[in-house]
Amino acid sequence: MNKVKELKKLGFISSFSIYIPAAILMSVLTKYLIPYFSTVTGQETIFSWFIVAGLGIFTPLIITGIFILKMEGFNFSMSTWTERLRFRKTTKRDLIWCFVGLVVVGIFSGIILKVLELAIGKFDHSPAFMSFEPLTNGRYWLLLIWFPYWILNILGEEFLWRGVMLPRQEIAFGKYTWLIHGFGWGIFHIAFGWQLLITLIPLIFIQSYVVQKTKNSWIGVIMHGGLNGPSFIAICFGLI
Questions:
Q1: Which residues contact 102 (CB under 8 A, 6 or more apart)?
Q2: Distance (Å) of CA 178 to CA 59, 187, 198, 215
Q3: How far is residue 124's CA from residue 192's CA, in Å, rounded to a whole number?
Q4: Is 135 helix (H, G, I), strand (E, B) or coil?
Q5: For 56-74, how does the pLDDT look when each residue is reduced to its tens digit (9 = 90+)?
Q6: Which of 144, 149, 156, 162 has its CA 20 to 30 A from that of 174?
Q7: CA-to-CA distance for 159 and 85, rounded, in angstroms?
Q8: Which sequence spans correspond to the domains of the chain?
Q9: How far apart are CA 94 and CA 97, in angstroms?
Q10: In three state form, how does the secondary structure of 174-203 look?
Q11: R_g of the chain computed on alpha carbons
């Protein structure tokens, strides 16, 4: 029998016993460690975010995912990667779902942003620990720090949330998994503040739905990384 079919369900309590500690870790590190690290190093806050988040938040997510896989009895192999974690070859159908999902996310995020601006006026929807001015001479080196952070960010989240947890949540919640999964993923981002969290709602739920629909974790990587990375680069060069 295929070992993937023997997976135990990951129910509500078990799921949130992972989401909530991860959210607390994010909140504590962004509230206390990042300001302290910025003071000690004399570097701008975004640099501290890259270091602290990369090593203190997203690396632990990867370690947690590895620990869960070991508890399930899986060793790292190609079959584990493709079947258990569902990092499979992307098909044309997968890419169509991915493209449509990104378009819908863009539309609804834009609408939410405009509605918020009408309701509360112009605002900086990035949390203080992620805010920074467009790069100038002498600061382009930050891109060298950002890139490995970005890899850890996307790998950490997609490996644990979509690769490790989602398949087991589907056993527990069936067709409604994306709602529970998205809600938990949203809780993880609570330290980002309510403004950014609201604008993330389309990505959080639509990506969860599309990855569940395609059963391909690479789609989560493409959607998450495809929005996260280019957005940061655009801010770096003052394009948005």
A1: 223, 226, 227
A2: 24, 14, 17, 12
A3: 12
A4: coil
A5: 999 999 999 999 999 999 9
A6: 156
A7: 8
A8: 8-236
A9: 5
A10: HHHHHHHHHHHHHHHCHHHCHHHHHHHHHH
A11: 18
